[in-house]
Amino acid sequence: MRQSKLFTKTRKEAPADEVSKNAQLLIQAGFIYKNMAGVYTFLPLGLRVIEKIKDIIRDEMNAIGGQEMYMPSLQDSEIWRQTDRWSDEKVDVWFKTELKAGGEVGLAWTHEEVITDLMRQYVSSYKDLPLFAYHIQTKFRNEMRAKSGIMRTREFWMKDLYSFSATEEQHHKFYEECAQAYKRIFDRIGIGDKTYRTFASGGAFTKFSHEFQTLAEAGEDVVYVNEAKGIAVNEEVLAEADLGELGVTRDELEKRKSIEVGNIFSLGTKFSEALGLTFMDENGAPQPVIMGSYGIGPARAMGTVVDLLADEKGIVWPESIAPFLVHLVVLNNDDEEIRDWADGIYDSLTESGVEVLYDDRDARAGEKFADSDLIGIPYRVIISRKTKAEGKFEVVTRATGDTKLVTEAELSTMFVK
Ligand code: ATP
Ligand code: MG
């Protein structure tokens, strides 16, 4: 991508109406645009990042047997009445509207009802189970507060997977596999070392469900953590948790702020009973299906990465989710010879499959470097008169600032996977 063609521009200053670091940096660098409080556009750079995060999630969900589908946002109020989750007293985040043809509909804030209802068509015997289905889809929530940038919005993508099992053993096997997959996802997007599987409230069988909480000052949640032992407990269950069983004492736990990047829940038979999702067991007796739900917010994860890894100069993307791997920055491009040389490097890197943002703009070196730091692409390759005589380029690693000089031959292989 040629930066001269990119319709977004960086801004000199962070937007004054944003309080969160993730939104300030992402808006300033041109990854997102704020349409209204809690509603953002993902611009070309931002879309590249979020799609990479979704692909990592998809990859790990497929690896544990998840089957991707796509369920709608518009919701028939009827099925939600059957689970007693239609009323605003029970659920305070609904966006509701009416059909012109008559009838109330809501915008989905989660999908347990929809998927349980539709599975009645496809599940009839224990032989159909277990099965795991997911989608990465837009949720709408009328959140009271939207101050954490892209980490708490009123319209957001969620990956939500639902498991359907015949026995508790089947359920627990998958629950653990999914927890491991979540760990791999957070490792791959670069926040694994700060992300804990915490004990949370609300599980249907066991007393607890689990959340994946990333330690961060910007977090809205509070966890009690022992970093050395890798144990964390949510604030609201601290009193109930049997710490002895977990292998820590209260004194060994430190209070920290954190961001809930994902969660996994045992739902038991709550939804299958309410909506009549049953299967015939081996003795031919009807049984309610045992369910679980497993959520991740890709944009919340993206905001968390920005928050944790950014430095005073701007965003720092891990390679796995960076919008581009290489930021090719040409200086002295009023010099035709240098410009041609840079164009050639851009073409050859692109042809070898390397994702390159090419700063071919007519701008001062200082401005280009400041923008490059702000945007946060992992490697900056600088083409300038200074090193041309030796036929070399400067390669700067964004995260560490390490700089080295490489030849054209070295450059042609160093980024090729
Ligand atoms: P929270 O307690 O932070 O409101 P939640 O318990 O409502 O989260 P779920 O309904 O289980 O979360 O959603 C699953 C995942 O979706 C969360 O772990 C989070 O990563 C993401 N998520 C939830 N709400 C939002 C939101 N308003 N904006 C962006 N991502 C969200
Ligand atoms: Mg919520």
From TrEMBL:
Species of the source: Candidatus Kaiserbacteria bacterium RIFOXYD1_FULL_42_15
Cited Pfam families: HGTP_anticodon, tRNA-synt_2b
EC number(s) given by UniProt: 6.1.1.15
Classification lineage: Bacteria, Candidatus Kaiseribacteriota
Gene Ontology cellular component annotations, sorted alphabetically: cytosol
Protein name, entry field: Proline--tRNA ligase
Domain named Aminoacyl-transfer RNA synthetases class-II family profile: residues: 38-318
Residues annotated as transmembrane: none
Reactions mediated catalytically: tRNA(Pro) + L-proline + ATP = L-prolyl-tRNA(Pro) + AMP + diphosphate
